[in-house]
Amino acid sequence: MAQRLDLDGDWQRVSPKYVWIVIVGSLIATVVSAAIIALIWYAGDWAWWGWLLVAAWAIGYGLQLIFAPRRARAIGYRMRDDDLLIRRGIAWLRFVAVPYGRMQLIDVTRGPISRALGLSDLRFVTASASSNVSIPGLPAEAADELRDRLIGLAETRRAGL
Amino acid sequence: MNPLADGQWHRMHPATPLLRGGAFFVAIVAIVFANLRERLVDWIAHVPDRAREGDPIDAIVEHGWVLWALLGVLVVVALIIVWYRVTWQMTEFRVTTDAVELRSGVLNRQNRQARLDRIQGVNVHRTLFARVFGAARLEIVVAGHDANLSLQYLGSAAAEELRREILGLAGSKRASAAGLHSASPVAGAGFETGAVPEEHGEAARLEGPQAPRPPQPLEAPVAASFAPGPQLDAILRARADELIFSPADLHPDFAPASVVKVHPGRLIGSLILSPFTIVLIAIVVWLVVEVARGNYILLVAVIPSVFGMFTGYSRRFGRLARYTISGSSDGVRVGYGLLSTSSETIPTGRIHAVEVVQPLLWRPFGWWAIRIARAGRARQRGQAENASTILPVGSLEDVGRVLPLLLPASDHTDLLALVHATARFRREARLFSQAPRAAAWLHPFSWRRVGYAYVGDTLALRAGLVYRTLDFVPLARVQSVAIKQGPVRRMLGLVDLAVHVVDVRIRPRLSVIGAPAGAELFEQLARSAVMLASRDSRS
């Protein structure tokens, strides 16, 4: 019965270095949540559910760190004839197809960690707020090149609203 | 040819300053009157002066400053009048073959352009105050936040004609952009008109001579007599018509009669049968219980807001009453409003999705509502919800009459069949696709109802048992397509497919569909969206 959704074809993957951004992000979240737990501990009134909380926390972040490389590898995009196809996620898979003519805006953003690793994030805006598509962790030059290419394609296939 | 659309710069209706500042003036007069009422009564009744301690008017009279005070008031009034007059003079608009342009502002000059091929719709709004004076605000809707261009105020008939003219120009613009031969008489013709008749601030001229008037419902006398009597009579009659008739009836040659009549009783019923009412009843019951237990302080605290909620009903009724809808060559015309009226024209090519819904409470009465998604939105306070509602409430027959207007490209009988399949679900009728049986784990009651169908180039999505919906998405206007699968759906062999359209308040979605069928539909939608969008922008 179980059927994994997949659209075959050769996917362009994001930079392997993107794994580090995911790991650093998870680590920061770990530290912050550990501080919150420590605070609760300090405030006292520690019952059995406290230990349960710690266990859930440890398992959650452990899994996140283990899956980080796989999650980074699961991000992919494919430039088809008329649209851009983007995939994300392992357990929660999401595929989005955005026609080139529907792209209103393409953003290139770089956070502090991405900058240190020489990576950029691409974000696409369509006229619909629910499209919500981005490709994180592209090498900076590749991102700029992809953006220029997509803008060129969007220009030639512009569709009215 | 409407003289206002001749490509030259024009000013607004000369009474614009009065209409824009109208509420302000009324408020000032009211304040002055309220403060001086006692004095006026005394003066009229010849009551000898009472002692008023520290009254500014007495102080002025005592010191002999009357002349100065009067002079001061006069200067302030004169300044206000001059300011409004200059603002009016500096505000001009023109309609060219490419765009509608508005330049305004005295100190900060502003020049705003709405390109004809980007127009999402044209609305005519009339507030109660403007209706008394036979004026209207023409709003040209374009995509984008606060990007609309608003011409306020124009003569009522002139606004109506200018709308038709602009929509006609926009339509022929789209047609000529597609390289088709334009048969429209408006395009390119008559743009060399030289002299523009100068407008003067004469109230009687606002209406009459500048535009050939359409026949009025009450057969206003058109006799060109210059005697003041009949002319005044004609103006008064036109005013009365404007107040009595709904916006669409006013100019019958511009729009055919409404295809749907919403009875006021039905509208009130639909407003009462809403989740809002349930919340209100819950609050009232809680209030009664608390008061019965002696908690009187709550009465003082909560009662005002409960009353506020009740006025919400009357406000919504006032907005949605006198609803009319009809098709015209320029698009769908929707009119509504009890005191302040509004009439919108939406070209059908600018409708991005259509949603037919039936909340659970409406089911015993068989009522439905229709909402649409569009890129631009009419800018009027408190009408955000209204702007997307195209049919506030109607029977199944009403839905059947309105849908073909909104989706003219689709086959009418097919549309009706799909609507009926949504309203009266029969297991054997297979108009919509069926989700596999495993979907029952996620939607135990409604899984049979989740499905899709095509009507020409439009995708139809049906869902819901409690809150029934039927979405229509013209594939040419799909922004993007997404498909999702979480762990649960993976176990059941299902996927979740969403079609993204411009307005996020309508989210066409197939929450369960078999995995292989879903992937296939995803590819198919992505392909046809691109193909139809390119064909759409060419034609």
Automatic annotation (TrEMBL), chain A:
Ranges for domain YdbS-like PH: 73-150
Domain of life the protein comes from: Bacteria
Classification via InterPro entries: YdbS-like_PH (IPR005182)
Membrane among keywords: yes
Chain ranges passing through the membrane: 20-42, 48-68
Keywords, ordered alphabetically: Membrane, Transmembrane, Transmembrane helix
Classification via Pfam families: bPH_2 (PF03703)
PANTHER family assigned: TRANSMEMBRANE PROTEIN-RELATED (PTHR34473:SF3), UPF0699 TRANSMEMBRANE PROTEIN YDBS (PTHR34473)
Protein name, UniProt field: YdbS-like PH domain-containing protein
Automatic annotation (TrEMBL), chain B:
The keyword Transmembrane appears for this protein: yes
Keywords carried by this UniProt record: Membrane, Transmembrane, Transmembrane helix
Domain of life: Bacteria
Transmembrane segments: 18-36, 65-84, 267-289, 295-313
InterPro entries: UCP026631, YdbS-like_PH
Matching Pfam families: bPH_2
Domain spans labelled YdbS-like PH: 88-166, 321-379, 447-524
Transmembrane helix among keywords: yes
Protein name: PH domain-containing protein
Species annotation: Gryllotalpicola daejeonensis
